[in-house]
Amino acid sequence: MTQHSVTLAAAQPAGAVQTPLLTLREKLAYGLGDVGNGFMFDLGQIYLLKFYTDTLGLPPAAAGGVFFFTKLFDALADFSVGTWVDRRRNIGPRGKFRPFILFGAVPLGLATVASFWQPGFSPDGTLLWAYFSYMLFGLIYSIVNIPYGSMIAAMTQDPVERAQLAAWRQGGSNLALLITTVCFVPLLAWVPTSQQGALWVVGGFALAGVLLQLFCYANIHERIGRPEAVQRRAPPFPLLDGVRAIGRNTPLLLLCLVNLLTFSAFNVKLVAQVYYCQYVLRDIGILPYMGFFSMGCVFLGVACVPWLSKHRGKKVTFVLGCAIWALGDLCNYFWPTPGALPFILFSCLAFFGSALVNSLYWAFASDAVEYGEWKTGLRTEGMVYSFFTFSRKLSQAIAGSLPGVVLAWVGYRPNSVQTPTAEHGITLLMFIYPGLLALLTLVVWWCFYRLDEVRYEGILLALQQRRQATGPAGDRA
Questions:
Q1: Is residue 91 part of a domain?
Q2: In a domain, 474, yes or no
Q3: Where is the chain membrane-spanning (predicted)?
């Protein structure tokens, strides 16, 4: 038995459930799965708005509308997919969640390429194509990503290992963000200068993403859940009961609220930084360097999460991250200095703090699965995770549409020298919006979140005792 398992056993109440430890290969594979997801998702989140405004020639407000309405569609798709996953009962040897990764990877890669295709239509036709292609991408992404995220709750119930899995996932997400931020713009200079030349770069990222998702599928395993035979016989729980269970899951609802704040802040920052480097700093070449150093600090933050979570708890780690994030962004705004170096240094501080915040969301969401099961008697991994991602898609809708609206309001003109008003609008998006939302998140989480490690261990013990009392036939989870 490892030192970690001895420590965990000593910390748990007598009779608490013991879960098998995960292998390093499994954690690595799970993290690489989000590298694959990120290669395709980050291209759209960071560069697609600029592609719409500067390449397709869509008006900024119309381009922002594409993000707003397609992300609302994605949010509904997430919850539908989560419900579908939870109500599946003909579960084969591949498991409950893994088949979605296997069969959805290639279609997701094709949809990524389609969203960056220049159709050559009329302005109205081009706008319709932007809506169709990005909605298609969002639907397929939901089908792949909802089961992938739900896997944490099915892989382990060990809270330390869940924090580690969440950190591996965030590390994978940040690695994808680093590579797309640093490499995408330089690679564009290497491809043919034809109208569709950028598709070569997008296609390369999409192919790499598909291969990484397939590697993830082949190396992760579902451990938590009832025996397969019981799953095949059990009828699906009523849909209305599942919805009511979500409404009674207080930690999940609070998690969705703060995620709406921080994920919106983070994604607005990602979109704004492309415009900020080109039009405020007047050097788009800074973007890869900023991405390299700031993402390096993100990896440092991700590496700190397991230790901080184990010794200080997830709640304290999360609040600390919010404070550091807000400090970095607000310093960048209120103490501007000439040159790119101070901007990069304060940005590194902000991204380090954001890593502490974003790394823990998946662990909190998995904890909410057990809380919901304890509270209502229903184990709804898919619905919990999809409701959580519903809030993320709402924040993406805000993050995608808000920059377009602000750019139109301040008089942004593509590929031109901007007015002082436009530059200040971009600066507000880059620093003030994320900095203030990080502060608000700190206050909300510190004051209202109550599901700490001690209470979580008590819930696990209560669930084990409930299962032992009722037997497999009485366990509807």
A1: yes
A2: no
A3: 97-117, 129-154, 175-192, 198-218, 252-276, 288-309, 316-335, 341-364, 394-412, 424-448
Name the domain count of the chain. Answer: 1
Q: Say which CATH number the domain at 65 has.
A: 1.20.1250.20
The Cα–Cα gap between 343 and 329 comes to: 9
Amino acid of residue 465: Q
Q: Burial of 289 by CB count in 10 Å (0-12 exposed, 13-18 middle, 19+ buried)? A: middle
Q: What range does the domain containing 178 cover?
A: 23-224+237-465
Confidence of residue 454 (pLDDT cuts 50, 70, 90): confident
Per residue in 240-271, pLDDT (tens digit) is: 777 788 889 999 999 999 998 998 898 888 88
Contact residues for 225 (Cβ-Cβ < 8 A; gap 6+): 96, 154, 231, 379
One-character DSSP codes across 38-55: HHHHHIIIIIHHHIIIII
With a CB cutoff of 8 Å and minimum separation 6, the contacts of 10 are: none
DSSP secondary structure string for all residues of 327-348: HHHHHHHHS--SSHHHHHHHHH
408's CB contacts (< 8 A; 6+ apart) are: 59, 60, 61, 64
| Listed residue (312, 270, 311) closest to 47, CA to CA | 270
pTM: 0.67
473 by Cβ neighbours in 10 Å (0-12 / 13-18 / 19+) ranks as exposed
Res. 229: pLDDT tops 50:
no
Q: How does the average pLDDT of the chain come out, rounded?
A: 82
Which sign, positive or negative, has the C-alpha torsion 283, 413, 116, 261? Answer: positive
User: Left if phi > 0, otherwise alpha if psi is -120 to 50, otherwise beta: which for 320?
Assistant: alpha
Q: Is residue 45 part of a domain?
A: yes
For residue 471, tell me if it sits in a domain. Answer: no
pLDDT digits (tens, 9 = 90+) for 406-447: 888 888 888 788 899 999 999 999 999 999 999 999 999 999
